[in-house]
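Hi R.,

As promised, here are both runs. First protein below:
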Amino acid sequence: MPSQPSATIETFPNPRPGQDYTIRMRIPEFTCLCPLTGQPDFATLKLAYVPDSKCVELKSLKLYIWSFRDRGVFHEAVTNEMADDLAGELSPRFLRLEARFKVRGGIYTRVIVERRQAGWTPAPPAILP
């Protein structure tokens, strides 16, 4: 197998560190295990962040996400862990991670976690005609 799961998140320098801009990613194939039953849980992750000095390298993000595949972890815990890991590596101005888990026992779970640099505020939204 050419690739293996990895807990390492690699970064590269932000090409426009003087500007606020948003990077959005949709990751439709996240899996982990229910810590109580061992059954697989499936989710679509939506990541949005405003980089400061670093951006996430996509292949390392894919391998990082893969590292949860065989771990038993609650939805709330895994979403917060991923947000903490990403914020720790990137030190973004703003980061939002949304995990939309597929139905389990008739219940859909959606966990949304945000991290923000102290003192950072977004520009006011543009109202277009």
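And here is the second one, sequence first, then its structure tokens:
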Amino acid sequence: MQLSKKKKYEQLLASIGIILEQGRKHAYQTVNTILVKTYWEIGKTITSYEQNNKESAGYGSKLFETIAKDIRFQYGKGFSRSNVIYMRLLYLKYPKSQTLSDQLSWSHYIELLSREDDLERTFYEKQCILEKWSVRELQRQINSALFHRIALSKDKRGVLELSKKGHIIQTEQDIVKDPYILEFLKIPEHALYSEKELEQKIIDNLQMFLLELGKGFTFVGRQYRISLGNKHFFTDLVFYNRILRCFVLIDLKIGEVTHNDIGQMNLYLNYFKEEENSNGDNDPIGIILGSEKDHLMVKYALGGLSNKLFVSKYKLYLPNKDELEERLRKILKPK
């Protein structure tokens, strides 16, 4: 059956639209790459000037303010003192321009350069590229101390690998965090709330919750019904991880996780393994999120279980970075 003239024309418009979108995206990336390289060249030129003229270029130096003022006068807006500082810092932290990524904007680099620790900055750079974070998403992950939360579960060698390559998901342990930071729910720290209210808050902020879960997660459903004879159970949240090719079940608990909660999640996992898995699916993973966690009880309750089951805490506020940095320094301390 031949297509009508109108249908053919609609297909033509759609094709033109696709070409335009691709062209605009490519143009934006090209302009962005040129902009970052230009700022790198400016940073290199400033550094060379300092070295040749023995200028002191601490953050309190008037050199940056003078450069910004004079460049603004000649070339217009866009050259603040802080921008000039970051241009110089870009060159100092990335002395080889080839190491700059064309996937990251100048705004990305400003956020990255605000990280003084090289390991931390390199991790966020790699992760930003791997997961294609927007600037806003990068800011959120930095503020939630993602690097420290993942790094503290590793030894010194693991921390160095994390910084060098980013967070690569290979096993079920790689997708589990402890704690999870849910500050985006905007629940006051000492507020009274129910599990149902917590679940609804997560659904209302699903995009941010997916960002906190990490790469590869897709939402399947809430209050997922499990029927065993005449009895019905409901898993709070069900996701699927495309990288590990498995369901991820999450149960939310107000207060401390109990051994009964662990037994219930184990039941859910056995059900999913038998009734919900399709060909090619790996065994499901269960995560129980509670506001409190008794490590000794969890250790014995999980002992002997064959299922992939984890218990983690969640926090409704951003972590104390000073404490996390101190704990990380102990891991990296030479022996």
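A quick note on the second one: Residues 5-101 form one domain. Let me know what you think.

Best,
J.
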